[in-house]
Amino acid sequence: MHLDFEDDTADIRLPHRRARLDGIAGDPDGNVSRLHRAVLDGEYALLPVLLRVCSNLDATNADGDTALHLAARVGSKISYRLLLQAGANAEARNAHGETPDDIMNIEH
To answer: 62 by DSSP, 3-state: which?
Structure first.
């Protein structure tokens, strides 16, 4: 994988192998989406693929966190930027009333 950050854009080239997309819906209990899991696990190469096929970028987990909230919580600027570029809602509030920016500014 190649990451290049010029002019605040991410150039991500996937290796010449097929990314596994099984489990797109997330975990079997429905607590997190596959997008949430990719953000938490730092699967940067898989994120662009999921962002193209994900029907709801602002799906929430049991705490009301979107994938963007989780990217902020784990301090993943790459995931955060990719989610924003794909149209994730930066104003979404979780169950604690926090926006992703609130979390990013407090924790990082």
So the answer is: coil
| Single pTM value for the model | 0.72
* 57-91 b/e (C-beta count within 10 Å ≥ 16 → b): bbbbbeeebbbbbbbbbbebebbbebbeebebeee
Q: Please, what CATH class does the domain formed by 2-107 belong to?
A: mainly alpha
42 Rama sector, left if φ>0, alpha if ψ -120 to 50, beta otherwise: left
| Spans of all domains in the chain | 2-107
pLDDT for 86 equals: 96
Task: Pull the structure tokens for residue 34.
Answer: 């596959």
Would you say residue 17 has pLDDT above 80? no
Instruction: Give the CA distances from residue 58 to residues 9, 61, 90, in Å, rounded to whole numbers and listed in that order.
Output: 22, 10, 9
Do 68 and 80 form a contact (C-beta atoms < 8 A)?
yes
Per the DSSP assignment, residues forming a β-bridge with 25 are none
